[in-house]
Specification:
single chain, 66% helix, mainly alpha, 95 residues, elongated
């Protein structure tokens, strides 16, 4: 998700070198700058699906909100993280 020039811009904005930024990510988030969004986006989508009322939320809208433009890739990432498909989480009776 972070392209090299974006990583450089983030480092400059944080008054760090790119290497220091990478080390800070590893130390504080146990991830790299490029790996962190891959871990966080499915987690945020999962929280949105859990918060949605069954039958009222739309998986595609949640996926788009978290930057997944291809539904199949979202479903695969979600299944890898949570062991089920996004629409199954949305459908669950949590009441």
């Amino acid at each position: 998700m972070f392209e090299p020039e974006l990583l450089t811009r983030v480092a400059v904005a944080a008054h760090l070198s790119v290497r220091s930024l990478r080390e800070a990510f590893r130390r504080h988030l146990d991830a790299t700058p490029t790996g962190y969004p891959s871990r966080v986006r499915p987690a945020r989508a999962h929280a949105d699906l859990l918060a949605a009322s069954p039958g009222r939320g739309r998986v595609a809208a949640v996926a788009a909100r978290w930057g997944f433009v291809q539904p199949g890739r979202f479903a695969a990432a979600y299944r890898a993280a949570y062991g089920c498909l996004p629409h199954e989480t949305l459908r669950e009776d949590r009441g």
